Amino acid sequence: MTSPTPKVRISLDAMGGDNAPECVVNGADIVCAGNPHLQITFFGDEERIEPLIKRTRHLTNSSIIHTEDAVSPDDTASQAVRRGKNTSMWLAIANVANGEVDAVVSAGNTGALMAMSKLQLRTMTGVTRPAIAAFFPTKSELVCMLDLGANLECDAENLVQFSILGQAFYRSLTGKQSPRLGLLNVGEEEQKGHEYLRVASRQLSEPELGVNYQGFVEGSDLVNGELDVVVTDGFSGNIALKTAEGISAMFTTLLRRSLKKSILSRIGYLLARTALKDMRRHIDPRSYNGAVFLGLNGIAVKSHGGTDKVGFANAITVAAELVDHGFLPDVSEAIARANIILEQKKDNLEQKKEDG
Q: Are 84 and 116 in contact (CB under 8 A)?
């Protein structure tokens, strides 16, 4: 007799994002249609959420925890933490911290979500800083990039840890055992870039770490499909991601405009409609919505604030898959192992200096 699929419990900040709570409720309904083992808890204004749930078909296993307040998009991280203990975001994260659910998803203020998550969930043992990771499309498979804005300045230790976190994250969601990883730099040559980049590169090249390190990569390499994970500081990563999203939107707009220019172009669209739909689906940002805060003792997923129900559904799916695949134990073990190896090498180097 087959054992029943265990429940995956997810709390949702129903008031976070430009289109909340409609987007949150309807996105959850989409996911639960194909995942009856999900157990959803909504945090937010019950008077607004309950009527929306009643109009759905697949949220019979959901519940609402009423909250009076919500984090404002204009709040700084410190303001949100100081004044936000009764907000839907804080309480949704608290539900993960106290073990009542397995993951939290919010489309709210990114800075507030990171600050609240770090404060309540705490960083894993051995992790110096958490990082934000997300996927975006390439010519072939997806590429994961981190950090995407949590840490504007980083050192070599941060980048090495981000690499371990990113590799475990990619492996957990895709099943690929040895993801190809590169460090973003201004050139591929070993002498290029800041000293901390070169130090991180040397450490990642150590075979004992078990990282499939490909060396330095440039911005043009991000979408060629030859890498699985790209690691950089949060300043460069956020700019790269937003640039990619902007180019995708521009391309879609220009293509749509071109296809409306003449009768011949409209006929061309009809002939190529299936191929164009496939391409649009491949570059649709909603399909890759759901950035993850890596390095915390809990799963917290950030949805794009302006997404629709389809995008929010994808963010919930990311959270559910990380729970299903046992991501937290895997990444904790990988970090502990890497830290032991690096500490041993550091001790050996210091001993050689003393002996010399």
A: yes
Our CA dihedral for 92, 98, 100, 105, rounded to 10 degrees, sits at: 30
Instruction: Specify the pTM.
Output: 0.85
Cα–Cα distance for residue pair 21/193, rounded to 1 Å? 45
Chunked mean pLDDT (size 10), the chain, 356 residues:
67 93 95 90 95 92 92 88 90 95 94 92 88 83 86 90 90 86 86 87 87 90 87 90 78 74 72 62 69 92 91 93 83 79 68 61
Cα–Cα distance, 150 to 158 (Å, whole number): 12
β-strand 143-146 against 131-136: which pairing, if any?
Answer: antiparallel
